[in-house]
Amino acid sequence: MQPVLDIKLFKKEIFMLRDLLNEQVVAINQKAKNWEEAIRIAGSILVNTGKCKESYIEAMIDVVKTYGPYIVIEDGIAMPHAKSSLDVNEDGLAIVTLKKPVDFHNRDFENVSVLFAICATNPDAHLNFLQELSGIFETENLVEQMCSCKEKKEIIKIIEENIAKSKGESECVL
């Protein structure tokens, strides 16, 4: 009889986001004229860290042009991404804070100052990113905290603390 759930795999997926956090994936106080440029900044981090090909940046922009600004998921926060494809080399994350907010033309949320761009090798990894990040996005004053950071390590600390906090609040015993 085979095990129903591989615990090692499960644990790896839970901590996938934390595993991707390092100073190479963070850019602070960036200047962007518009939402497309903001996505390009985040996408260039994914490309420069070898996570995806340049074509993935265009795919993220095309998603917004095709489906609208649904990637703006909270006041001040956008999560650019595109479909898992051959353009993705490995799961990746890019975190960008902007010097001035940009308008994604989303009627429900304020202009964006923080971007969490993701690329995933498969839809399951994509969903894991969404699940982990959703707990972070509930943090009060997250955008203000992140935009006030002067160093990349401060951003990482905020994210790690909020990952831990969201896991503690949502932890359950089976």
UniProtKB/TrEMBL annotation:
InterPro entries assigned to the protein according to its UniProt record, in alphabetical order: Ascorbate-PTS_EIIA_comp (IPR051351), PTrfase/Anion_transptr (IPR016152), PTS_EIIA_type-2_dom (IPR002178)
Source organism superkingdom: Bacteria
Domain PTS EIIA type-2: 19-162
CDD domains cross-referenced by the UniProt entry: PTS_IIA_fru (cd00211)
Keywords on record: Cytoplasm, Kinase, Phosphoprotein, Phosphotransferase system, Sugar transport, Transferase, Transport
A single MF term (Gene Ontology): kinase activity
Pfam families in UniProt: PTS_EIIA_2
Gene Ontology terms describing biological process: phosphoenolpyruvate-dependent sugar phosphotransferase system
Gene3D superfamilies membership: Mannitol-specific EII, Chain A
Compartment annotation: Cytoplasm
Gene Ontology cellular-component terms listed: cytoplasm
Purpose of the protein: The phosphoenolpyruvate-dependent sugar phosphotransferase system (sugar PTS), a major carbohydrate active transport system, catalyzes the phosphorylation of incoming sugar substrates concomitantly with their translocation across the cell membrane. The enzyme II UlaABC PTS system is involved in ascorbate transport.
Protein's recorded name: Ascorbate-specific PTS system EIIA component
Organism, as annotated: Clostridium porci
Lineage of the organism: Bacteria, Bacillati, Bacillota, Clostridia, Eubacteriales
